Write a sequence for this structure.
């Protein structure tokens, strides 16, 4: 079946540190891959997406590359800010035409000044 | 720009009570979804709808019912609430064109539900 596995959190970094949050997936066919971010007390917001192998999604300094050979979609940012503190979710949408999302368990990021 | 609006934001129920959560979107999206979020488990799909008048089961549908009588609204019902249904519920919607799997979902701010 389809599943998403994220690295365990919480992740605590100092401001301006490099961020990597690992995400691997299991899926049949050619899923689309997403990173969503959830700030405290809010719903999820799309951070970036990639819809085919070798695509790179990017937004607000965050990047992730769709790696079919390693079934991975790791999230990276070169220099984090305190305002990046949030919960990050990796998700996949199977290639069937229902748009359903399958989420990882989420990774909490805390950035300290 | 309202986007996706969920009502209510908070609710406390007693075991066995019933209630309906309302989701409304103003983006003319075809697809709508209900998820629940529990600690350490991410979001899990309860039910979804690919158009007005249609609904389908997701990963964890037991104990819930849904209706999509109007395109802009998607209702989630709990007929007899149980403590295991204590959770944060999120509604989302998305376009269907250009392949639904490629479209991002737009989320509401959630409903925090406690069952005593």
């Amino acid at each position: 079946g389809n599943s998403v596995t994220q690295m365990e959190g919480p992740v605590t970094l100092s401001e301006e540190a490099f961020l990597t949050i690992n995400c691997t997936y299991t899926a049949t066919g050619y899923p689309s891959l997403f990173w969503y971010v959830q700030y405290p007390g809010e719903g999820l917001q799309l951070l970036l997406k990639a819809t085919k192998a070798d695509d790179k999604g990017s937004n607000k300094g965050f990047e992730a590359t769709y790696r079919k050979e390693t079934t991975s979609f790791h999230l990276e940012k070169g220099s984090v800010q305190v305002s990046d503190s949030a919960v990050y979710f990796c998700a996949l949408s199977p290639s069937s035409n229902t748009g359903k999302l399958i989420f990882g368990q989420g990774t909490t990021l805390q950035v300290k000044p | 720009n309202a986007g996706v609006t969920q009502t209510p934001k908070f609710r406390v129920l007693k075991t066995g009570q019933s209630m309906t959560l309302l989701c409304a979107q103003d983006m003319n999206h075809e697809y709508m979804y209900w998820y629940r979020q529990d600690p350490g488990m991410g979001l899990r799909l309860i039910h979804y709808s690919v158009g007005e008048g249609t609904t389908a089961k997701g990963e964890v549908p037991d104990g819930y019912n849904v209706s999509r009588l109007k395109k802009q609204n998607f209702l989630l019902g709990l007929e007899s609430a149980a403590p295991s249904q204590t959770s944060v519920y999120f509604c989302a919607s998305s376009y269907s064109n250009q392949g639904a799997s490629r479209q991002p979902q737009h989320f509401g701010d959630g409903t925090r539900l406690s069952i005593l």
Residues 74 and 112 of chain A are 22 Å apart (CA to CA). The interface with chain B takes residues 4, 31-32, 34, 36, 41-46, 49, 51, 89, 93-106 of chain A (CB under 8 Å). The radius of gyration of chain A is 14 Å.
